[in-house]
Amino acid sequence: MTQPTLIRRAGVLPAALALAAAGVPVLPLSADKRPFGNCPVCMDLACGGRPNMLVPGPCVCPLPCHGWAAATTDPAVLSSAAWAPAWRRAGTIAYHPGGAGITVVDLDHADAVAWARTALPPTRTVATTRGEHWIYRGTMRSVNGVRDGVDLKSCMSYARWLGSGTGTMTVLPQAVRALAVKTPPVRPAPRTVAVPAPVGGGQCRHRVPSYLERGIAMAEQRITDAASAIHATVYATFLAVLSAHGRCGCLTEAHMDRLFAAAQAKGESPRHCAVAWANAQTALGM
Which of 27, 134, 180, 203 could form a disulfide with 105 if both were Cys (CB 3.0 to 4.6 A apart)? Predict the structure, then answer.
């Protein structure tokens, strides 16, 4: 039986009670498909989520106020006077897949469904407005956007109840678990850019090599320690280095490579490094 048919025949709360009796933790969902808003008591699960995060922890709030963690199979809670206002405003029913021991692969459009049919083992499917829910037996962490139009909903997540679906539910496969493992981005190796270092015509005023070395090391550290405004920090650092060391002839391309490498390690591109260096030279009239 589809969810609209179930709700039309029984009503939202009776339909939710029927699901709870079958072991599915449920909660009311607003007409715009959002759970009812968080309260200060439950912010960041301060009310206490159980350590395994598969089912919600105890909550004494007057309303189901914190998404998946409000889901319950307790008919006394679902039917309580405290929850009545939420059920009266509810547009549909949501459930906590992890609490029900399942994982939902949410396929948001036709291309995602077509991909699943070639990449994932068949299992129970439920039609959605734009795609399908593929439901597997077993739990895992929830991750959104594992690929275009594909979300994984299980522990610490909620999904709309759209009916029992068709087909036989199968065990959560490794192919689905692997989708949650995101490969960290590979940062390109620092590379030098052909921007000549300034060449001075006079005698170097730095009496010992350690003066220049200390200045370059401090500049590298300043860039590395930057937590924000990376572009501005890189430019200001280049400007300071050129101001102190750019006219006497002791600054070499090896020193530039070190500064550029530090900037690229913070996400700057070689082009941005070259532009920042050239702008600093221009500002100093070099």
Answer: 134
Q: Do residues 24 and 40 touch, judged by C-beta distance below 8 A?
A: no
Q: What is the pLDDT along the chain (286 residues), one digit of tens a residue?
A: 455 554 544 578 999 999 999 999 998 887 777 776 545 555 555 555 433 333 344 555 655 566 777 788 999 888 888 778 888 888 889 999 999 999 999 999 999 999 999 999 999 999 999 999 999 999 998 888 899 999 999 988 899 999 989 999 999 999 999 998 865 544 544 444 445 555 554 455 665 667 778 888 888 888 888 877 788 888 888 888 888 777 776 777 888 888 888 888 888 888 778 888 888 887 777 6
User: Phi/psi at 42 (nearest 5 deg)?
Assistant: -100, 5
Q: b/e for 222-255, b at 16 or more Cβ within 10 A?
A: bbeebeeeeeebbbbbbbebbebbbbbbbbeeeb
Residue 57 CA to residue 43 CA, distance in Å, equals 13
Closest CA to 34 of 94, 114, 84: 94
Pairing of strands 159-160, 92-95: antiparallel
Cα 208 to the center of its chain, rounded Å: 50
Instruction: List the structure tokens of 31.
Output: 């007409």
